[in-house]
Amino acid sequence: xxxxxxxxxxxxxxxxxxxxxxxxxxxxxxxxxxxxxxxxxxxxxxxxxxxxxxxxxxxxxxxxxxxxxxxxxxxxxxxxxxxxxxxxxxxxxxxxxxxxxxxxxxxxxxxxxxxxxxxxxxxxxxxxxxxxxxxxxx
Length: 138
Description:
With 138 residues, the protein is mostly helical. The chain has a domain at 26-120: Helicase, Ruva Protein, domain 3 (Orthogonal Bundle), CATH 1.10.8. The chain has six helices and no strands. It has helices spanning 11-16, 28-38, 50-56, 62-86, 104-113, 122-132. The longest helix has 25 residues, at 62-86. The two termini are 23 Å apart. Keywords: ATP-binding, Cytoplasm, Cytoskeleton, Isomerase, Microtubule, Nucleotide-binding.
């Protein structure tokens, strides 16, 4: 079983969990891997600033990063839809504009609309892990 708010589990549930392992926020290497997978650079497109993102998204959860990447990926479609909405004539299917590439400014816009969520409860995760976590030794 997994939960985002383990401190809300009652004592009976906690007794049934053999291992209670806190999965930390993604480190820089994990964030880079997520960006390369979720926002891959396409041949001929302007390369995306993965290095900048790795630094800017310190403290973001994997879910937060996925949401940000989805938001950035929607921007080219929104630009295309805006062009079509401004056209008064019906555009034949074979003349529809192509959806463009994700641009660095699309990422900036996504950053302005997406905030980290896990940092709000960081102290609660740490306290729960200290009290109930399965401290696995390497």
